[in-house]
Amino acid sequence: MATSAHEGGDAQSMRPSRPVSHTVAELAALTGAESVPARSGAAEPVTGVVLNSREVQPGDLYAALPGARVHGARFAADAAAAGAVAVLTDPEGARLLAGAGTDLPVLVCADPRAWVGPVARAVYDSQPADGSGQELFAVTGTNGKTTTTYFITSVLRALGHTTGLIGTIEILAGDTPIPSHLTTPEAPHVHSLLALMRERGITATGMEVSSHALEFHRVDGVRYDVAGFTNLTQDHLDLHGSMAEYFEAKAQLFTADRTRRAVVVLSEEDPWGAAMAQRARENLGTERVSTVALRGSDSGEDADAADWTLRSLERRGIGTAFTLTHADGRELRVHTGLPGEFNVANAALAVLMVLDSGVPLETLQRALDEHDPLTTSVPGRMQLVGTAPTSLVDFAHNPDALVRVLRSVRPENGEGRVIVVFGATGQRDTTKRPIMGRVAAEEADVVIVTDDDPHGEDPGPIREQVAAGAREAVADGARATDVLVVEPRATAIHTAVRMARPEDAIIVAGRGHETAQDVNGVNVPLDDRVELRNALEALHAHTKEQK
Ligand SMILES: CC(=O)N[C@H]1[C@@H](OP(=O)(O)OP(=O)(O)OC[C@H]2O[C@@H](n3ccc(=O)[nH]c3=O)[C@H](O)[C@@H]2O)O[C@H](CO)[C@@H](O)[C@@H]1O[C@H](C)C(=O)N[C@@H](C)C(=O)N[C@H](CCC(=O)O)C(=O)O
Ligand SMILES: Nc1ncnc2c1ncn2[C@@H]1O[C@H](COP(=O)(O)OP(=O)(O)OP(=O)(O)O)[C@@H](O)[C@H]1O
């Protein structure tokens, strides 16, 4: 999965045309900055906020933050040269700046990263106190954030809203999509985008909130109308260390200063959902939290305890129709056009989040009926590229997602094999590699291990760690009998297609919508959908020739 570092190229397109200016002195008072050792400029108006010196425009405040690689204060001179009017930093940054000869006012806080959001909120007036901003929906969880935000915006559009979107695939804040480099942008971008959206008449926005975003204060100063939780399974342990800490990072979204209400998915397979619902109730009050139970929806503890349960699931086309039933007898009929049982969970969460924002149930039902089915495609998420063999590209890049995707593509009649092509990213959670190999061998018939984004790591050992997990599972009697290691990725995709019979299903997992592989910081063009389509066309041309 490529999450290329932001280079500031799109920053301009995220800014509103009319920021509200605050003076440096006002922002110093807001942050409670320990000192403003300004040699000049305390009365200067601040019209923008940036975290990266390369994005500075005249009138900006540059937040010089300590980083993993370097302290941002090292770039303060560049920021000043580009027209920054003030610097926000920590004591270490202030020390570095003292010797650097910049004469900008410096706001010094113990934890400046935590102030970037509130300062950006003030400067851009991203959520006016009079409530004239858009309705805001946040989705967090290991898997399903992107899909759920697409579902949410579909429902909102069906209700007549002009919608915005902030997430992994793209940012929609008007007619032209803005490329997305992070699941959740940095705080200055989040606030400038919210202001831009308001300026452009967007009335409701769905937004993904990653655990990185919560840990790195990217959504500080934002208040959501409804926050939703999809699930918590293994990923990102390189950042969080343990599942308990990963949970705590996500739980930060479910506090009264961040959201008015919450909707939480409960599943027998994911104990973190019940824990999150409990945490949300403690923080927001029971009446502001709704839950929906997935598995065991007709029986079992979760279902009994949940507000909403799923009933009457029925395959319709490649999607699913189902009914959401409340303990008090209310019902909502939903039809999602996306395949996979997990997309029922995502669609249910989306619909309930919109309901809980205050839309009358009858109005919502009418909108769902008039726009049936709800969302038929999300780029790179269970995206159907060809049939016979059924060929899909998906973004599953952690063990739980891989299991669910492989289960959902298994042909119902039991005929046909499942062939999976996937790899693991370099320089990210290494513990998930053999687990992904194992689950792939348990759920698929043919496992083809290849490269994902190696980033700066040698791809050979990554492939071997994934393959080792798969081979171990095969030795334990897993479903798969073949574990192939094939590189480069395009060749692996062509190999899968050549091996497939018409009744088989091929799933190319892990990179979804992405169009380039990050190899040592270089973007190498590669689109799984294009490769898969090309391979299928070659196969079909060959089959025709032989007839
Ligand atoms: C691991 C991580 O999240 N790192 C974040 C961190 O970077 P860092 O500490 O390494 O920063 P650094 O390179 O040492 O630089 C220090 C400071 O100097 C600044 N700088 C640096 C160079 C320069 O020329 N000018 C300049 O001003 C930087 O903006 C930074 O503020 O602080 C930076 C801003 O302060 C973030 O942009 C950066 O996110 C990077 C880009 C990233 O790729 N993060 C990924 C892992 C991420 O956040 N992913 C999540 C989850 C996705 C998922 O769910 O799968 C996401 O939301 O996308
Ligand atoms: N509710 C779910 N439960 C488990 N797996 C899911 C769920 N929804 C989607 N997936 C799987 O996870 C993959 C990623 O889905 P999606 O992009 O919606 O999630 P995400 O949380 O936004 O991921 P990321 O943060 O990595 O972008 C999908 O391609 C699918 O394989």
Care to describe what's here?
- UDP-N-acetyl-alpha-D-muramoyl-L-alanyl-D-glutamate binds at residues 51, 53, 183-184, 210, 218.
- It is an enzyme of class 6 (ligase).
- Catalyzes the addition of an amino acid to the nucleotide precursor UDP-N-acetylmuramoyl-L-alanyl-D-glutamate (UMAG) in the biosynthesis of bacterial cell-wall peptidoglycan.
- With 547 residues, this protein is α/β, with parallel strands linked by helices.
- The chain folds into three domains: 20-122, MurE/MurF, N-terminal domain (Udp-n-acetylmuramoylalanyl-d-glutamate--2,6- Diaminopimelate Ligase, Chain: A, domain 1), CATH 3.40.1390; 135-370, UDP-N-acetylmuramoyl-L-alanine:D-glutamate ligase (3-Layer(aba) Sandwich); 383-546, Mur ligase, C-terminal domain (Protein-Tyrosine Phosphatase, Chain A), CATH 3.90.190.20.
- It is built from 18 helices and 25 strands.
- The strands form five sheets. The chain has an eleven-stranded mixed sheet, sandwiched between helices. It has a six-stranded mixed sheet with strand order 18-19-23-20-21-22, sandwiched between helices.
- Helix 4 (113-124) packs parallel to helix 6, helix 5 (145-158) packs across helix 12 (341-356) and helix 15 (432-443) crosses helix 16 (459-475).
- It is globular, with a radius of gyration of 24 Å.
- The model is unreliable at 1-8 and 296-302 (pLDDT under 50).
- Bound molecules: ligand UAG and adenosine-5'-triphosphate (ATP).
- Ligand UAG is lined by residues 3, 5-6, 51-54, 65, 67-70, 72, 75, 182-184, 186, 210, 212-213, 216.
- Residues 143-147, 168, 183, 208, 210, 230-231, 342, 345-346, 381, 394-396, 400-401, 404-405, 512 line the site of adenosine-5'-triphosphate.
